[in-house]
Predict the structure.
Amino acid sequence: MRITLSPEENQFVAEVGAFVDTHWPAGMEQHGYAQAVGEGVIPHWLEALAAQGWSVPSWPEAHGGPGWTRRQQMLFEQTLASRGAPSPAGVATCFVGPLLMQAGSPQQQATWLPEIRDLGCR
């Protein structure tokens, strides 16, 4: 299935692609996750995502996410995958964080959401 992108979406994909090209070594997916961790690539990648505000692509701006549409989230994930870069999606970012947003107390949200959003990098 071919998806036609708007000029704004093409610009978004180009921005994400440039970010990946800057922060994720080309060809790293061929070496495997263990080597990427051992060489410090994964921690650098996670820090870069957190610093850019892209560590939690499905989160609303009110909780520190980019506030992207579902289509932007899909384009983000596709761009990462096309360049062999790992997604920041995980249990904490996709399930625990949203659960805290919905049902957590303000104190729980203040305590845990920043740590989840920063992927434990700060």
User: Anything to note?
Assistant: The mean pLDDT is 89. Residues 56 and 81 are 16 Å apart (CA to CA). The chain is about 60% helix and 0% strand. The helical segments are 7-23, 33-38, 41-52, 70-82, 91-103, 106-117.
